[in-house]
Design brief:
mainly alpha; two-stranded antiparallel sheet; 12 helices; 2 strands; 77% helix
Length: 333
C-alpha cells in the first residue's frame, strides 16, 4: 500500500494502444494547439495594437484569450509528449501543477464570461450609463477579481486534494491530472468529504453566475425587442451572439462531461468528453468572436496586411540592395 509521500509519478490514460494511432493523436493535438496559439495570439495583438478595440469588451476579450492560451498550454503539451514518446507517466509535481493551472484558467474564464455578459447588459439595457459603470478602473477591478477568484479556487482545491493520503495506486483514468480522478485514489474519508464540500461551494458559485447570465440575457432580449428598427435589433443581437455562443459551448461541454449518467460512462467516452470540454472551447473561442465582431475582423485584416506589406517591402529592399552592390554577392579571398 502506497501513500502520497512515496508516489513520484502518476500514470495517465493513453489515447490508443497502437503506435500509429498515438502518432495520429500527436499530430491532431499539434494542429489544434498551433491553431489555438495562432488565433489567440492574433486577437491579443489586434486588441493591444488597434485603438478601436481599446474598449471594455476588447479588454475582456484580451483577458479571455489569455485564459484560453493557459488552458491549452496546461493539458495539451504533456498529452502530445506522451503520445510521441509512447509513455503514460507524469511526475508528482507535474500532476499537481496541471489541476491547479487548469482550475485557475477555467475558473477565471467562467468569471470573465460572466463579466462580459454584464458588459453586454449595460451596453444594451443602460447605454447612457455605460461609460460610468464600465470605466477603465472598473474594468480593471472586475478582471482582477476574476483572476483572483480563479486563483483562490484553484489553490483551495489543489492544496486539499494533494494533502490527502493516496493508497489506491497511481493510475488515473484521464489523459491529464483531474481532481475527481485523483480523489478516487484517496483513502481518507474526511479529506474526501472536505473536497466534496469545496466542490459544492464552487458549484453554488458557478450556478450563481449561471443564473446571473440567464437573467441578464432575458433583460437583453426584452430590450432588443423594444428597439423599433429591424437594423437596430440586428446590430444589438450581433454584439451578443458571439458571447452567447461561447458561454453555451463552455457550459454545455462541462456539464455534459461531469453530470452525465454513470450508466453511459466508459473510458473511451470519458476521454472524448474530457477533450471536448478542455481543448475544444479554448480553440474555438477566437474563431467565434472573430466571425461576428466586425471591428475585430477589420483590426486583424489591417494587422495582417501591414505585416505582409512590411515583409514584402523588406524582401524587395534586400534584393535591390544586393543588386546595387554586386561586391556583396562575390566571395572575398
Amino acid at each position: 500500500m502506497s501513500n502520497s509521500s512515496s508516489l513520484t509519478q502518476f500514470l495517465l490514460l493513453a489515447f490508443a494502444d497502437r503506435r500509429e494511432l498515438q502518432l495520429l493523436h500527436f499530430w491532431l493535438f499539434l494542429a489544434i494547439s498551433l491553431a489555438a496559439l495562432l488565433a489567440n495570439g492574433l486577437i491579443l495583438s489586434a486588441v493591444a495594437c488597434d485603438h478601436h478595440l481599446h474598449t471594455p469588451m476588447g479588454f475582456f476579450l484580451l483577458n479571455l484569450s489569455l485564459t484560453d492560451l493557459g488552458c491549452i498550454c496546461t493539458t495539451v503539451p504533456k498529452a502530445m509528449h506522451n503520445s510521441l514518446q509512447n509513455t503514460t507517466t507524469i511526475s508528482y509535481m507535474g500532476c499537481a501543477a496541471q489541476p491547479f493551472f487548469f482550475f485557475f484558467f477555467m475558473s477565471a474564464e467562467y468569471f470573465l464570461l460572466t463579466i462580459m455578459c454584464y458588459d453586454r447588459y449595460i451596453a444594451i439595457c443602460k447605454p447612457l450609463h455605460y461609460g460610468t459603470l464600465l470605466g477603465s478602473r472598473a474594468c480593471a477591478h472586475m478582471a482582477a477579481a476574476a483572476w483572483a477568484a480563479g486563483f483562490l479556487i484553484a489553490l483551495l482545491h489543489t492544496a486539499n486534494t494533494f494533502s490527502l493520503p493516496l493508497c489506491q495506486g497511481n493510475a488515473l483514468g484521464q489523459f491529464f491530472c483531474e481532481i475527481p480522478h485523483i480523489l478516487k485514489l484517496s483513502c481518507s474519508h474526511s479529506g474526501y468529504l472536505r473536497e466534496i464540500g469545496l466542490i459544492w461551494v464552487s458549484a453554488c458559485l458557478v450556478f450563481g453566475c449561471f443564473i446571473f447570465i440567464v437573467f441578464s440575457y432575458v433583460q437583453i432580449f426584452r430590450a432588443v425587442l423594444r428597439i423599433p428598427s429591424q437594423q437596430g435589433r440586428h446590430k444589438a443581437l450581433s454584439t451578443c451572439l458571439p458571447h452567447l455562443v461561447v458561454v453555451s459551448l463552455f457550459i454545455t461541454t462541462g456539464m455534459f462531461s461531469h453530470l452525465k449518467p454513470h450508466s453511459i460512462s466508459s473510458p473511451t467516452l470519458d476521454l472524448a468528453l474530457s477533450v471536448l470540454y478542455s481543448v475544444v472551447p479554448p480553440s474555438l473561442n477566437p474563431l467565434i468572436y472573430s466571425l461576428r465582431n466586425q471591428e475585430l475582423k477589420d483590426a486583424l485584416r489591417k494587422m495582417m496586411t501591414a505585416c505582409f506589406s512590411g515583409a514584402i517591402t523588406c524582401l524587395i529592399s534586400s534584393v535591390e540592395h544586393s543588386l546595387c552592390n554586386p561586391l556583396l554577392a562575390q566571395p572575398t579571398f
